[in-house]
Amino acid sequence: MRESGTSEPEILLAARAVIAEGPVWDAKTGGLWWIDIPRGEVHLLDPSTGNDRRWVVGQPVGCLALTREGDVLLALRDGLSVTSRGFAETPVLWPLPGEPDGNRPNDGCVDSSGRFWIGTMDIEERRVAGSLYRVDLRTKPPEIVRTLAGVTVSNGIDWSPEDDRMYFADSPTGRVDVLDWDPGSGTASNRRPFATLPSDAGLPDGLCVDAEAHVWVALWGGGAVRRYRPDGTLEREVKLPVTKVTSCAFGGRELDELFITTASSGLNEAQLAAQPDAGAIFRYLPGCRGRQPNLAAVNVENWPR
Questions:
Q1: What is the CA radius of gyration of the chain?
Q2: 210 is a catalytic site residue
Q3: Is there a contact between 225 and 185 (Cβ–Cβ < 8 Å)?
Q4: Closest C-alpha to 8, from 290, 284, 287, 288
Q5: CA–CA distance from 271 to each of 15, 91, 101, 141, 276 (Å)?
Q6: Which of 125, 255, 289, 299 has the most CB atoms around its CB within 10 Å?
Q7: What is the structure's pLDDT at 180?
Q8: Alpha-carbon distance 103 to 125, whole Å?
Q9: What's the DSSP call for residue 125?
Q10: How far is CA 100 from CA 63, 94, 95, in A?
Q11: What is the pLDDT of residues 38-76, one digit of tens each?
Q12: How far, CA to CA in Å, does 105 sit from each of 71, 80, 101, 170?
């Protein structure tokens, strides 16, 4: 494992994204998947060369996951899609039941059993209309269950290395919550605060849990990523030269690189001039390792090819 070689994150890709989000490391290709939500773009970045491939899927995309079969699972505005890595077509196969008009997926993650967890939000952020869903695509028909309602902006889903804790953030609460997790049944219970951010620190956005059970949290409006110990105390804060930090994920050959996504959304001309790197993808060497992302389990007989 490499020791941290820089005192601050470096720009990996000057993407100028509106809202770069959903980073997922792909060990098969040695690349980083990420999305630009409002542009409806899916990207695959090669950190070794800086080459960034782009596909436009025709509608806002809230998050993605890789499947055990080698495909890509997308949570689009209108529902779920499974597509090959060539993105020849992205048909919506399964809508999220009961989602009101004006909502879209916003963040997601795959648990150890291959179930895809997806949070939603009101696009205008004016209503407490979001939910958290558990999606099992091994069954026919797929099992899509609303596990939590009354969410404003669903974010930051991941699990502890021991697979006994689930982390979740509803961003406007200013808090990351932790729940007791049963991987067998796929149920989370006893929701309680894990870390509460000061009002001037920004809002918790995407998060990931490293191999040492520490929780890394991106701070929307806070210009930083924070690392919290398993007891919820702050271990470090990593500052970035942009205010809107959206998510983070480990990757690299040894899983010792932290990739950080950011946004330019909502910044005025003066703010954009002061933050020319807004919307970039950053890389930071944290001196610790992450974990391989879980792969979604999909019964391929459930969807047309």
A1: 18
A2: no
A3: no
A4: 284
A5: 17, 38, 32, 48, 9
A6: 255
A7: 98
A8: 9
A9: S
A10: 18, 15, 11
A11: 999 999 999 999 999 999 998 999 999 999 988 999 999
A12: 19, 10, 12, 13
Task: Give the closest residue to 257 by CA, choosing from 295, 229, 284, 281.
Answer: 284
For 169-217, the three-class secondary structure string (H helix, E strand, C coil) is EEHHHCEEEEEEEECCCCEEEEEEEEEECCCCCCEEEEEEECCCCCEEE
User: What is the token pair recorded at 26?
Assistant: 């792909």
The H or E element that residue 132 is part of is strand 130-136
Percent of the chain with pLDDT over 70: 95
* Token pair for 77: 């505005």
Contact 70, 28 (CB under 8 A): yes
Residue showing tokens 């980073």? 23
Q: What is the pTM of this model?
A: 0.95
User: Mind listing the pLDDT tens digit for each residue in 172-209?
Assistant: 999 999 999 999 999 999 999 999 999 999 999 999 99
Tokens (6 digits) for 39: 């542009």
Structure-token match 């997790």, residue found: 181
Q: What is the C-alpha separation between 87 and 144, in angstroms, rounded?
A: 24
**What distance in Å separates the CA atoms of residue 108 and residue 119, rounded to the nearest whole number?**
6
